[in-house]
Amino acid sequence: MDLKAKLRHVMDFPKEGIDFIDITTVLQDAEAFKACMDSFKDYAEQLGDFDVIVGSESRGFIFGAPLACQMGKGFVPVRKKGKLPYKTIRVEYDLEYGQDVLEMHEDAVKPGQRVLIVDDLLATGGTTEANIKLVEQLGGEVAGIIYFIELGFLEGRKKLEGYKVNSIVTF
Ligand code: 5GP
After folding, report:
1. Whose CA is nearest to atom 5 of ligand 1?
2. In what residue span(s) does the Phosphoribosyltransferase domain sit (predicted)?
3. ipTM of the complex
């Protein structure tokens, strides 16, 4: 299936000049969503065994949680500041449209666990870098990273050298 053709481009969102890629047109289409999840699973199976999937708020949850459930793995949410109820570790990071803080529960990843990071889109790589820092701070090993969409022209992969990175569609 041509998933690229199913994505909607929204100009000037959330700021003027940004060509925002809207994934909801894929999510609302049962066949397209299934094809997308199947591709995530195919890439995940190529990574060898892993223990847990990490996805960050909020679109990382949409793909990460069902993939974890389907593959018989746990899911760890990474959230914005102050949203997680238990003790957290945190990292400050730069994102495409500003700066923010991401947090993870301090017992969410165990030392030595192999972790798959999942997100909807790779732009500059800042969000993923923050996810990697959280995982590695807890002694986890990043088994791989899978995106639905990669904005190749932003060269986010350069920040992720040394990690196994896959994306389903690239612009
Ligand atoms: P990065 O940290 O790689 O610069 O930005 C990636 C993050 O920003 C992802 O978590 C993603 O959800 C969000 N993002 C940035 N641009 C877009 C876009 O055009 N479409 C979507 N769906 N998400 C975006």
Report:
1. 123
2. 26-150
3. 0.97
Quickly state the pLDDT bin for 8 (edges 50, 70, 90): very high
Q: pLDDT tens digits, residue range 70-82?
A: 999 999 999 999 9
Q: Which of 19, 36, 99, 127 to mutate to test the pocket of ligand 1 (most atoms within 8 A of CB)?
A: 127
The pick from 3, 56, 94, 121 for probing ligand 1's pocket by mutation, whose C-beta has the most ligand atoms within 8 angstroms, reads: 121
- In this structure, what are the phi and psi dihedrals at residue 47, rounded to the nearest 5 degrees? -90, 0
Query: What are the structural domains of the chain?
Result: 49-170 (3.40.50.2020)
CB 120 within 8 A of CB 60: yes
> What does the pLDDT read at residue 99?
84
Query: Mean pLDDT score of the chain, rounded to an integer?
Result: 96
Q: Which residues line ligand 1 (CB under 6 A)?
A: 20-21, 23, 59, 95-96, 119-127, 156
